[in-house]
Amino acid sequence: xxxxxxxxxxxxxxxxxxxxxxxxxxxxxxxxxxxxxxxxxxxxxxxxxxxxxxxxxxxxxxxxxxxxxxxxxxxxxxxxxxxxxxxxxxxxxxxxxxxxxxxxxxxxxxxxxxxxxxxxxxxxxxxxxxxxxxxxxxxxxxxxxxxxxxxxxxxxxxxxxxxxxxxxxxxxxxxxxxxxxxxxxxxxxxxxxxxxxxxxxxxxxxxxxxxxxxxxxxxxxxxxxxxxxxxxxxxxxxxxxxxxxxxxxxxxxxxx
Length: 256
Hints:
Layout: H1 7-14, E1 18-23, H2 28-34, E2 41-45, H3 53-62, E3 69-73, H4 79-87, E4 92-95, H5 101-110, H6 137-144, E5 146-151, H7 154-158, H8 160-164, E6 171-174, H9 176-182, H10 192-207, E7 211-215, H11 219-228, E8 232-237, H12 238-254
Parallel strand pairs: 1-2, 1-8, 2-3, 3-4, 4-5, 5-6, 6-7, 7-8
Helix pairs in contact: 2-3
């Protein structure tokens, strides 16, 4: 039995637009709810959310029956954490703060088994193989791993073309908050200079044959990124969605 087909990776390769949402609660119950909402993909955020490898695993389990594809954002681009999330069953990994081609090449290697990569060969006891029942996993896993890299500062933008030339990368995600702050606009990703850099980056990513991605946290920003051609587009964050709805509900009824 081979590794499961990564439908999200295939959709990106086909040029299909994929609409997603961020998950920042770090809770399996919330992930299970989010998995019923109809998004194409959902991010389990290991960078800014209160996650560890156990909570990441539990959210992967909660999404196992969902049509929404789980994307695990690791906290840092280190081989050890990539190894752990892959063995926990993740097939798509998002890595923050990628700045140059050398770093990108090492991340590709971290997602592949030897002799091409550095991923540890210990999957027999892991969830990724359904605990040894996916008999041909090691022979087929590399082809189903989807690697997404975040470019989110000036150095990364400067080196974007070199990063895009590295084989084994499926998509590049532009981080608007970090990029705008690094550009001196303190998180104002709507500033015209920032928007121009984002639009240029998304176009360059697409022209290189990779999938361009980004997160919008307001209807205006999301529509702007949609119009720029973002292919894997996150349209919200679960914590913000709850907070906005709850605050509006409280305002409606406490003001009577």
